[in-house]
Design brief:
This protein has 700 residues and is mainly beta. 1% of the residues lie in helices and 64% in strands. The chain contains one helix and 43 strands. The chain has a 26-stranded antiparallel beta barrel. It is elongated and about 115 Å long. The two termini are 55 Å apart.
């Protein structure tokens, strides 16, 4: 009996024995491996000396560890370690559920056969069924005349059927002569298909996307996701655009070590006949070089501005007029920092010949640090920039600015921080002047204080509220100097004179939250800031917001941030013209507000309104609805009151079933109307965009 130890216990007609022989189960785990005992019980149990086999009949149950096998009848041959189960066979463990009319299993090798069998992999919700299912190894199965799906039910929402399926748990289900069914309706045939049977990243096709657009015409997109290594992957996508051509793209993602991450994307459209070609390149990188130097890259390039108009999907993207590429390096110490960058801007409307580029720019900063034990501090900033362009004045600029400051606390209730700086600018340019320099002083003084009071609150979660009042005063003085002879590269070459005082009052309301068995938490639920400035001279502009040149009192600015609870948020900014003689409400010449409320179920409402007198009046709204489940709705609307028309309407609909989803998108803009449809099956990602990185193509 090959070391078989048998213990037979009788209880009425119930027989139980314990087997300590090495054995292997049909299940996907290791529950029947090793020498742990196997408990078998049945209504009747007999032993045949001739065949050296046990026959169990009626309510047969085998248990070992977390694995259980149920059947109407069971024959176990001790000599060969083979088992045959018949009638209502059911094998369960934490990883899988197996059901069959009949099962034959070699416990020594783990190989076996199911007749009329079904297998459910719990972690993946992967279901496979077939007339004959063979277990070829620990993770490999072959199914004749089988089906597989991730849906529940006798008639699943979708399934693949095939003459033969080869399944590798943790890998793929490979099907030959496969037919895709929606319920019982065949809709697609393919001679070969494979489907991932794992939750880890796995190479394969993503679900396609289809649609139509005024600009792009009929469109279809399919993508292949490729796992290159544990730290690298890529997506290759192919788009058919009837009015433009054939789009090809690659998205490559990588992580090297703990500090090197990035993504490189390239997309190209080959035009049909006379249609133009489009190309877009994008590279994002964050990493470190030897010497603890941090490097970042944000590089973008497109062949034509129409690329954004054609493939842009969100406001601020399809109306872009330039691309900007920046590669930056930085190194930080406790009191110092050194940074440099190469910045190139490409103007897609007027051309880049006259666009000023910073190639390169280097800045060094000595942070504010104490001078001895007194109240005085010293800081130093310097930068050097090489300005280059094909047409126009070019040159180099060196800026050095030392600053001496101090901090005083008179009466222990007021903080006074005066600071005086000197900005020296030196220029070398190809203009007629050649070399130029000029220095200019600046002086600031900041006064601030803080008063607070706490109030006890008898709330369910809120037990204490603190009200903080923070008055602030800032005085700035910059002398008026003629800077007309300097090259005018940017705003640092024409520093406006100032003789200005700004005062503000800040109110903060902070609640202390506590719950049983949880530490206390603090939540700032209201922030309010009121500010105004007074100019002692005509500065030429309101520095808070450029409007008209003014002298005297500026507009009153109000900022409000409210977070009354965890599912709502409100931000408001407005400016009030104190000099205007208009009606009271008409004197609010700037008004920006944004609000959002949401819940944990997926419902949300967002509103935003931006208004600036004589410049723009714009409304944006968004709604997410989950109350219609299994239908999920997202609606976005943008309206321009100045021109009296809708800028954009977007409707996203998702029907989410237990094992699949269908997505419908309608995007309506004055220049384009687009319809898109895509599908998702559990276990397969889907293409959610067309046009590469700049077209917001993402893969889920």
């Amino acid at each position: 009996m090959r070391g078989l130890v048998l213990r037979l216990l009788l209880c009425s007609t119930l027989a139980v024995f314990v087997v300590s022989a090495p054995c292997v189960a049909w299940g996907f785990g290791d529950d029947l491996r090793g020498r742990a005992p196997v408990d078998l019980s049945a209504d009747a149990l007999t032993f045949d000396q001739t065949t050296q086999s046990y026959r169990a009949v009626g309510s047969v149950t085998i248990r070992k560890g977390e694995l259980t096998l149920l059947a109407d009848e069971l024959v176990f041959r001790a000599e060969t370690e083979e088992a045959s189960a018949l009638g209502n066979v059911r094998l369960t463990d934490p990883e899988a559920l197996v059901e069959a009319e009949r099962m034959e299993l070699d416990l020594a090798t783990g190989r076996g056969r199911l007749i009329g069998g079904r297998i459910l992999l719990r972690e993946h919700q992967f279901r496979v069924a077939g007339d004959v299912i063979e277990r070829l190894g620990d993770q490999d199965y072959r199914i004749e005349k089988g089906t597989f799906t991730t849906c529940e039910g006798e008639v699943p929402s979708w399934k693949f059927s095939a003459r033969r399926l080869d399944v590798t748990v943790g890998g793929y289900a490979r099907a030959r002569h496969a037919v895709f069914y929606l319920r019982d309706i065949p809709v697609l045939y393919t001679p070969y298909f494979f489907y991932p049977v794992k939750t880890e990243r796995e190479s394969g096709f993503l679900m396609p996307r289809f649609g139509a657009s005024n600009r792009r015409g009929t469109q279809a997109s399919i993508a292949w996701y490729q796992v290159i290594a544990q730290n690298q992957d890529a997506t290759f996508h192919l788009d058919y655009l009837s009015r433009l051509g054939l789009g090809k793209g690659v998205e490559y993602r990588y992580i090297f070590g703990e500090a090197e991450t990035g993504e490189f994307n390239i997309y190209h459209v080959s035009g049909f006949s006379a249609e133009p070609d489009y190309t877009a390149v994008d590279w994002r990188h964050v990493g470190r070089l030897p010497g603890d130097v941090r490097v970042t890259a944000d590089v973008e390039w497109v062949s034509d501005r129409e690329y954004f108009e054609t493939f842009g999907e969100v406001a601020g993207e399809y109306n872009r007029e330039e691309t900007r590429s920046v590669v930056a390096f930085s190194r930080y110490w406790p009191y110092y920092s050194l940074a440099g960058q190469f910045s190139y801007t490409r103007n897609l409307v007027e051309g880049s010949d006259a666009t000023l580029q910073r190639l390169p720019e280097v800045a060094f900063a000595s942070l504010r640090r104490p001078m001895g034990d007194g109240p005085f501090f010293f800081a130093f900033d310097t930068s050097v920039t090489n300005f280059w362009r094909r047409e126009g004045v070019t040159g180099q600029r060196l800026i050095m600015r030392p600053e001496l400051s101090a901090t005083f606390h008179p009466g222990e209730i007021l903080e006074v921080r005066p600071a005086v700086g000197y900005r020296e600018r030196l220029y070398w340019s190809d203009d007629d002047g050649g070399f130029e320099r000029q220095g200019i002083f600046d002086f600031t003084t900041r006064l601030s204080s803080r008063f607070s009071r706490a109030f006890d609150v008898d709330g369910r979660r809120v037990h204490r509220i603190e009200h903080r009042v923070q008055p602030e005063v800032l005085y700035t003085y910059i002398p008026d100097k003629d800077q007309g002879r300097l090259p005018q590269f940017d705003v640092l070459d024409a520093i406006e004179p100032q003789n200005r005082i700004e005062y503000a009052l800040v109110n903060r309301f902070i609640a202390r939250l506590s719950a049983p068995s949880e530490p206390s938490a603090y939540h700032e639920f209201l922030y309010l800031r009121l500010s105004q400035a007074y100019d002692f001279q005509d500065t030429g502009a309101d520095l808070l917001l450029p409007t008209e040149p003014r002298e005297g009192f500026s507009d009153v600015r109000a900022e409000l941030i409210a977070r009354p609870n965890r599912w709502s948020h409100l931000e408001l900014e407005t400016r009030f013209d104190v000099d205007s003689r208009d009606d009271f409400l008409d004197r609010f010449f700037v008004f920006n507000v944004g609000a959002r409320v949401w819940d944990t179920a997926g419902n949300a409402l967002a509103l935003s309104y931006r208004y600036h007198e004589d410049l723009f009046s714009y409304l944006g709204a968004g709604v997410d609805l989950a109350v219609l489940r299994p239908v999920y709705l997202n609606y976005q609307h943008r309206y321009d009151f100045d021109v009296g028309r809708t800028l954009e309407k977007v409707v996203n609909l998702e029907y989410r079933a237990q094992c699949w989803s269908v997505f419908l998108t309608l995007r309506d803009r004055p220049e384009d109307t687009e319809y898109l449809i895509s599908f998702a099956l559990t276990g397969l990602g889907r293409v959610t965009g067309i046009g590469g990185r700049f077209g917001a193509a993402q893969y889920q």
